[in-house]
Amino acid sequence: MSAIMHPYPPRRGPENKILPLLAVDAFLVGLAFGLLYNTGYTLLVYRFGSGGLRLAYVMAGLLVPIVSIGFQSLEERISVFRLSAATKLVFAVAAPLLYALTFPLFGRVAALAPFFIMLVYTMGALYCFMLRGSIAAELYDVRTLKGVYPRLTAWEMTAVICAGLAVAPLSRILGAVEAILPLSGIALIGSLAVGRRVRRTIGSNGRDRTPASEQHSNQTHSVIGSLRTLLSNRYAMLVFLYQFLAFSTSLLLQYVIYTQAQRVFATQDGLTQFIGLAKSLVTAGAMLFTFLAAGYLLLRYGMLAGLGVGPMLITLGIVVSLVAGAFGVSPQVFLGILVLIQVLEYGSYSGFAKTSVQSAFQPLAAHEREAVHGFAQGIGIPLSYGFSGLVLIGLSRLDSADGYYAIAVTLVITLAYGAVGWLLFRAYGEQLRSSLARRRIDGVNLVFNDASTREVLHRLLDTPDRWQVHAALDLMHEAGMPDYEPCVRELIASPHPGVQAEAFARVEELRSEWAEPMARNAACGDNPIEVRQAAVCAWCATSQDPVLEVAPLLSAGEPEIRAAAVTGLFLYGGINGILHAGNVFNTMVESPDPADRRHAADILGRLAVRSFYQPLIPLLRDENTEVRLAALRAVRSVGHPALLAETIELTEPAATRAEALAALAGMGEAVLPELTRIVHDRSILPKHTCVRIVRASGRMEPVRVTSVLTEGLGRPADELTTAILQALVARSYRADAAARPQILLAIDLRLANAALAVMALHDLRADSIALRALISAAQDSYVRSVEDAFLLLSLLHSQDEVQGARRRMLEGTLRDRALAAELLDVTLTGPLRQKMLAVTEHRDDSPPEIEKYRELFGLRALGNNNRVLQMASDSRLWPEQWPRICGRAAAWALGLGQTKPEDSVLTTIERVLALKTAEIFAGIPDAVLAHIASIVEEIDVAPRETFIRKGEFGSCMYTIREGRVLIHDGDRRFAELGPGEVVGEMAVLDPQPRSASVTALENTVLLRLDKDAFDSVMADHPSLAQGVIAVLCRRLRSGLQDG
Q1: CA distances from 741 to 344, 431, 729, 744, 795 (A)
Q2: Does the pLDDT value for residue 12 go beyond 60?
Q3: Which pTM value belongs to this model?
Q4: Which of 316, 475, 794, 809 is the most exposed place for a label (fewest CB within 10 A)?
Q5: Residue 575's CB: how many other CB atoms inside 10 A?
Q6: Residue 398: its pLDDT value, please?
Q7: How far apart are CA 490 and CA 487, in angstroms?
Q8: Would you kindly state where each structural domain of the chain is located, as residue ranges?
């Protein structure tokens, strides 16, 4: 989460330092290939006319894909930066060589030089474009890419404008248009130098990790493999088709324009000047749009605009041109209309389509992205040349090949381009969802007909692990496999006791007569106790007269066997069995041996008779914890309302809390009246108990629970409301039309709270020690508000998708967060989308967009002092108590308040800050840390004093508030730890003798947390255990590295 909300001043990241260099590189590359373009097209159109264009297209379609195969192979073997440098060097050398080919001494080869120039231009522009996209993808995530890539494209377009304007005067100065070619090579040499600087900058900023392009897996992507990936993945095919049709549309439109220009301009100078000026005009219009609006529009209106605006504008322009042609406008006017259409086409492609296609690659899996990206651009774009050339050759046989037929075909291709864009937009959202959604197996039809799945099942059945066998048998039973019962029969003979016990448990369910002698022999033999216990119940279930045969076991020496006999006779012995076993059961309930009482509770759980609840009441009040836990497990099955009070009371001790909450979840209908009172704030139970019961309601079966919980959707934001939302999400609730307005209003309020926290963090001085607690409270408020907003969104949209986006947005990498933002972008609409993205996409490397926050939320910057006073006193904007406590303490420290907080309050704040620095408490809300701070014991340790000794039994952990300590075993030193670190954490998870000693190296202040207090907090906040595990894993890795 700290990656999104950070209390410290923004830093200028390496990506921002690299951006100007990438812009210069894009300009030089654009200038180089802009000169090549103008030179090649001028010579080609003037010497060979429209027929030359058609032939050039076909040549590019045939030859460039072959070269691209080799290029793609190189991409897999060397880094993108090295390949970029090599590519530029090759084409820098090719430019003067092309100029030499135009000399008359080369004869017929010189006559074909325009075709060679066009081929070099096509390959060079294509490969440099691909490499720029790959480098940008290395440095920027999918969301940032939408803002950055249009800028790079705009610089490239600026260079193309300059090239178009310069080509005519340069050709006059140099004496021939082909003399411009060496200048293209010079521009590429300059680009090489800039590329080296980019690489050095990346390394100097600590990003000199191996780029993704160098981190190749052993999997390579041959053309056949890439094609197979393309054909097997509908989404990848749509990306390929979109780019193919986009480029085909551009080529056909370009052909129509230059064919018309050939009619209007008869001389080479006139044609040269037109091609240069037209290219400059088209690029200038597109550049202004790209530079000023494209990135903003993409971020504001999303992928649909990126993929759909181009085809729509081109279609409109072509229709206008056809209407103008029908009215007989002059060739000059008609040419002007066509140029304007190209402005629309080039602007939308450069500003929208290019960036959108780069973004469209991101949701693909890494291996698919590499394969499809290389094939779609390296092979797909050249194929569009060949396709366009073949279409135009076919049209050339018609009388109007150079007129309306070509325009009409362009219109058809454009419509197909738009249709594929719409399909790609739909598929883009689905692809994002599939990459972000949680994986589920619920609701999947179980089919085990294939040999490989059966083999997996049989391997599970062959293991000694009872629970793996249990899972395999469950799957077989649910699937209705005919060999389920034969498998159970085979497992009875297993050499593993746990597996045998599982087999007899299944026999009890099947009640098959063939199992009776096996169960009798196992129950009366010398098998392990767990096998005999399961066999007794199976014997009762399969025997013709269980009372006669099993009753003697009621006096067995082992309590487990007596309990199994009582259970079996109660379940399968009828009235006679109940009479025989009843006295033994009563004796067990009143026995002084806790094991007997625990077995009595287990029997009640197995019986699950609602009216037979009275014996559970004294067992729930038993002094022995294990007995109480067994009784709670029985409550889950019995579910009588008379047990509710005792069960709720057992949610208080940490040792019984989890089982008590599970019992409440199992009681279902019995809890509904109390749950209703809780939701409507009429319960007399403590607030924390109410929160626990609401959380447990997410696992309750009755449908009515959901309707009760929905009555709390309009509650103000607090911990109880969050628990209600979590329970509704756990119950897979989807809001109906009547509930949607209320939920949308609640989301709006949560986003407003999150935006307020963002503005507070902007106003508060991050370098002020007095404000550390207040900044932490604002961060905490932001996280809770955003999490609530995602919970509410889960009630309107797919819960898997939204919760997957939440995890990646709040906990993921930059790439994860960008993909999550993309999912929100394509899922949400209107103001909700704008607000959600504004709040969740806020980064620590830049201040919030003040104008946007004023427009969306009505918020403004207040400055440090006013914000402190607001947080200290405004209970409407800051309803939670902890931020106001921190605000009053900060106001007093800054001299803004007259009343000094109590010393206990200041001590608690200091302890919260100390705990907050510890990794294990990172996911705990500040208000909960304040509770922990009130129960920890502060201990002062002198230098060289040992406060943890190896071999001593440990039941507490320490957080270092001040000073440093040494973990050691005698003279062997393991680690030195300082403020914010914890020691002795294993003792609160699994109390055992200490494995090492810990000695203070200087005056040290420790915060001691005992196991009971730790368990109490962990029961409500499992992330605390996750924090401890994270610390242990980090230390283990560090130890392995040191070793």
Answers
A1: 40, 29, 18, 5, 12
A2: no
A3: 0.68
A4: 316
A5: 8
A6: 64
A7: 5
A8: 14-210+219-432, 544-638, 640-720, 740-901, 934-1042
